[in-house]
Each structure stands twice: as structure tokens, then as C-alpha cells.
Amino acid sequence: MTEPVRPLVRPSRLVPGARVAVVAPSGPVSEERLEAGLDVLRGWDLDPVVAPHVLDRHGEFGYLAGTDADRAADLQRAWCDPSVDAVLCARGGYGAQRMADLLDWAAMRAAGPKVFVGFSDITVLHQAFATRLGLVTLHGPAAAGVDFVKNARAQDHLKATLFRPETVRVIPSRGTAMVPGRARGVTLGGCLSMLTSDLGTPHARTGARDGLVLLEDIGEQPYRIDRMLTQLLRTGWLDGVAGIALGSWAGCGPYDTVRPVLLDRLGGLGVPVVEEFGFGHCEGALTIPFGVDAELDADAGELTLDEPALR
Q1: Strand locations in the chain, DSSP E?
Q2: H or E element at residue 161
């Protein structure tokens, strides 16, 4: 039996003038969108600094933002810099798995807690930050992502979470109950394909017992979603899960072809499930803290945090 998911240490909230580092642990970054994202951060009275290799392109694999060693060095340097209060990922894509084992987790743990934000491929690092650093992290918009640059709802919810986390203890959504009910647990999850590909690796969570799992993905056909959920079920990763919130399934086909798969694979767990919760690869994506005690109300489509995401 896997250990229950437990609440993690909450980093401190940001204040005006805080220095935030932007890194690219995964895919290549658009310079234009990066500059637009930096302008947003400056508009929040933050001091953004760009890691040296954020705009790099891998010489052989165009889907990577530079070499594995350089991407890892950027993240580690930013995290261990005492002048940096938060580390924001420029985008997802692919590549975090390739560099996760190059990080000096002992040095990063010694550097102390700070805010970490990202989503999609960054799911791999959310898991590692939980298991290796014991820290609450924020599943939120990428600093050079379209949603962050152009969507006021996504910007406002992330900004409130960073600066005034007590104002977003209740996270309402437009979601509805796939399976009704309420559940309590510690939040975790992210991109479904990354959670499944991370199974069995040194930094992955071993299971979601007593947890509230939040799942979403992009560009996966229904049969692939079926395969990945089935893998989580067969490995026992979902044994003892308390509740499930489902986010966006962009590019996965019409939702009426995706929904039956989700219901078939998750509806029999006997726990509340809320669908279309509004996080992930969708317009106006909500920021969701991972590692906090919360209550999920599937009927109301709400997630209520016991404490603010940040101190």
C-alpha cells in the first residue's frame, strides 16, 4: 500500500519588487511571447530576470530549448540564487524528464522554499519538487504562453495567487459533477501523459492515496487517454484517491468522444469527479496549488483550500 499524500511546505507570497527568474526546462521559447510575458510581470511591479539559455535551441532536437545540461543549470542556478523569490517556467512542451536527473536536489533543498510556477510538461517537476523538496508548487500559466500573455482571467488568477493568496482560497469553476459528492485531500496531479510517463522514476509520486487528483492533457486521442488512465488504474496509482477534478482536453477530439472514456475509467472509483474545471491547456486557465489540503465539491464545481497556497 502506498503512503498517503501529505500536505507540503508553503513558500512565501510575492511582494512588489520581488525578483522572479524565468527558465525554460522543456521546449523552445518564442522571443516575442517571452518579451510580452516579461512586460506583464513588470506591470505587476516584479523584477523579472531571464535565465541565460531560455532562448536557446538544441542543435539536433528542435523540440528542446537548448541542451539538457544547460536547461538544468538554468533552473538550478535560479533556484539557488538567494536574490530570486520565484521561478517561473516560460513554457511546457517536452524535455523536463531529460533534465530532472541532472539537478542537484540536495543543493536546491538547502536553498530553501520559493515559488515555482508552470504546467503541462512541467508536471514532471511538480512531482519532483513535491518528493525531493517537499514544497507546494503552482500549476499555472507559463510566463511566455499565449494564455498568460493575452488572457486577463489567467493573469488575474495567477497574480492574486502570488500576491494575495488569501483571496483565492475558494477556486470556483464552470465545472459540473461527473460523479457527485464532496471529498477532502491534498492536491496533486497535472498533465495525464506526463504523470503516466513519470511512473516508476526516481522523483515521481508513488500514488495518490488520500489525494485530490487534478488531470488534464492536450493532443491525445480518446484511446490514448483510455490507455493512460488504465495504466494509472492497473499500477494502483489511483488506489485510495479521495476525489478527481478534470481540466481541459484541448485537441483531444470533440468532448463528447472524450467524456465517455473519462466516465468509464474514473466513474467506478466511487469518489467525486468534477469535469471541465478550467485548468490546463484552456483559455483563461486557473492556477491550482499542488500540495495543499483542500475540499472538492463536485456539485458546486469548487475547490476550497484549507489555507492560502502561499504564506
Answers
A1: 19-23, 47-50, 86-89, 115-118, 137-139, 170-172, 176-179, 182-191, 211-218, 243-250, 273-275, 288-290, 293-297, 302-305
A2: helix 152-163
Sign of CA dihedral 103, 188, 209, 295: positive
* Catalytic residue from among 120, 173, 193, 248: 120
- Distance in Å from the first CA to the final CA of the chain: 32
32: phi then psi, degrees, rounded to nearest 5 = -60, -45
DSSP labels, 177-243: EEE--EEEEEEEEEEHHHHHHTTTSTTS-S--TTEEEEEEEES--HHHHHHHHHHHHHTTTTTT--E
Q: What angle do CA 139, 143, 145 make, to 5 degrees?
A: 90
**Average pLDDT per consecutive 10 residues, the chain (311 residues; last block may be shorter):** 91 98 98 97 98 97 98 98 98 97 98 97 98 98 95 97 98 96 98 97 96 98 98 98 98 98 98 98 97 98 98 97
Helical packing angle, 222-234 and 255-266, nearest 10°: 10
Catalytic residue among 139, 220, 281, 302: 281
Q: How many whole angstroms from its chain centre is CA 55? A: 22
Catalytic, out of 216, 220, 275, 276: 216
Radius of gyration from C-alpha coordinates of the chain: 18
Is 35 part of the annotated catalytic residue set? no
Residue 120: active-site member: yes
- Model pTM score: 0.97
Is 139 one of the annotated active-site residues of the chain?
A: no
168 vs 2: CA distance, rounded Å: 31
Sheet with 137-139, side-by-side order of all strands = 47-50, 19-23, 86-89, 115-118, 137-139, 288-290
* C-alpha neighbours within 13 Å on the C-beta side of residue 33: 19
C-alpha of 11 from chain center = 16
Calpha distance 232→196 (Å, rounded): 7
